[in-house]
Amino acid sequence: MSNSSATAVPSAATLFSPCPTNPTAAACVVYVNQTTKVITTQGLQFAAPGMGITIVNSLPSSASIIDLSSNGITTIPTSALPLSVTDLNLSGNPIKTLSGTFASFSTLTAFRVANAQITDVRDLVVPDALKLLDLSGNPITTFQISSATRDSLNDLITKSHSFKVDPFTLAACDGRRDTLANGLSICLVEPSKSTSMGTIWLEIVGAAAGLVVLTLLYFCCVRKMLSHVYNQRRAGGRHAAAAADEGTGVGSAYEEALDVDPTGGVTFVNTVVGKGQEAVRGSKVQINYVGKLASTGKQFDANASTIRPFKFQVGAGDVVPGMDVGVEGMLEGGTRVVQIPSKMGYGAHGAGDDIPPHADLVFEIRLLKVVPGIRFAT
């Protein structure tokens, strides 16, 4: 299979810093059709509005004022944000949920997510330094926070009138209804604070037993595992999934996808084109990789920092179908960013706590070595 077999109509763009295709550029956007647009930075300001960005892989570590408005970003890219950020603008992106803690961004004073698509605000924790939170223009129906966050928002409302949000009506409340200083009803849900010693000991014993089992499995099957996490995910392989789910999981989805599209919707960008042996179906390959969720950029697995490369046979079902398709056509020494739709990854089941159901994935792959094997029919 040639490189062109896994390409598709551009549907995503990834923001990188530094730029993988232009070492002199501080940042760039790499589109699925292989085109690249360099972004110039101005001091502490980093601006990339309206560039079609869907994945934020990384940002300049020195950036303080960041404008990523009017792109296709669906989730707050917390894992890519520099801790030095003071002003973050994500307005106009199709973000549906605002959740999680931003307390680690201790210098963040302005946070704008206006005119997005936020319906769900849940478990939000804001930094003490925050002076402006703009959620205006969002169709919010759920606003579920702790009393500590309520107090922080009330400070914004009463001291500086810098909490901007349109009037909304709660659809439901899993906790206790309360009211902000601006009169809006919210739902208070406090984090659990008590855990019995018996529960703690059970968790410790259970974790120790699980560690022993994982260790035995690792040393038994190390040649066929991505990592200790991959042991839980190997069911994503073509043959394993078909057996585990009796034809109803990833395996059958893989076959159905290939009936319509030989790539199953997998797309890629070559960031470095290699010069060695080509990986084809049947080749035994050695790679380094980093796996991330496409929606958030959160890393869920990697072997890039380990001594041993990951080895598998292309097309043999050792890995999820999208990885097989994504590696095909690579040349030794090359690197590639591969976007894998859910149906070619872990499908409706997901994988453990790190990969939710129906999650699209992004893998950054470096092909280290190709050993010719039995060439499978295409």
TrEMBL record:
Protein name in UniProt: peptidylprolyl isomerase
Originating organism: Aphanomyces stellatus
Origin organism lineage: Eukaryota, Sar, Stramenopiles, Oomycota, Saprolegniomycetes
Residues annotated as transmembrane: 200-221
EC identifiers of the protein: 5.2.1.8
UniProt-listed Gene3D superfamilies: 3.10.50.40, Ribonuclease Inhibitor (3.80.10.10)
Molecular function per GO: peptidyl-prolyl cis-trans isomerase activity
Key words, A-Z: Isomerase, Membrane, Rotamase, Transmembrane, Transmembrane helix
PANTHER family reported in the protein's UniProt record: 39 KDA FK506-BINDING NUCLEAR PROTEIN (PTHR43811:SF19), FKBP-TYPE PEPTIDYL-PROLYL CIS-TRANS ISOMERASE FKPA (PTHR43811)
Domain PPIase FKBP-type: 282-371
Catalytic reaction equation(s): [protein]-peptidylproline (omega=180) = [protein]-peptidylproline (omega=0)
Pfam family, one: FKBP_C
Family matches, as SUPFAM superfamilies: FKBP-like (SSF54534), Outer arm dynein light chain 1 (SSF52075)
Keyword RNA-binding attached: no
Protein's UniProt keywords contain Transferase: no
The organism's place on the tree of life at top rank: Eukaryota
InterPro entries the record matches: LRR_dom_sf, PPIase_dom_sf, PPIase_FKBP_dom
